[in-house]
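User: My collaborator sent over this chain with a note saying "see what the structure looks like." That's all I know about it. Can you take a look?
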Amino acid sequence: MAAMTHQEHHDETTTHDDIETKNEAVVIPEEMKAIFEDRARNHEIRLDREGRWTYRGAPVTNKKVVDLFNRSIRRTTEGDWVLHVGKDIHPIIIEDTPYFVERMDLEGENPIVFLNDGTAEILVPETIRYKPVGRLYCLVKDGTTPARFTWNAYHGLAEHMDELDGWIVLNLPNTQIRLAPADEETSV
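Assistant: Without extra context I'll predict from the sequence alone. Here is the result:
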């Protein structure tokens, strides 16, 4: 089973068994740890809370580089985040979460989320969490990692939100999720 790209999702009907995530842990050899720490200090690569990459504080704007970075995010066995491209491993700073929901497909029986790493996954509605001022998260990668909904994805869901019994609720196929008390600042 291979992770699906956005285009592959459109080319065929998917089921849960067709979608696989990448959760491979990267092992940093002991003799490489000093070099690894030096690279982190002197060549900082950061993914900010809005999903924007920077290198040494400057924005990374080349779409091909951004896409490569998004596809190359891995976690080490020690829990650190890295970019793993071929044989090269570089430490990165993640301000919020490494994955972002760019859009959703709510047409089928199971909602599909499309992530910034180019994969698509079936959304597990019970994992959706709301944080004040318009931050919506769900768990991805076999429920191991939070993904933040981008501004566009979040507002795309707004038409599926209602107020019910003092709560903001999200209406998805086959389920309704209570997100937050309606008196909280929701920015919907």
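A starting point for your reply to your collaborator: Residues 99-181 form one domain.
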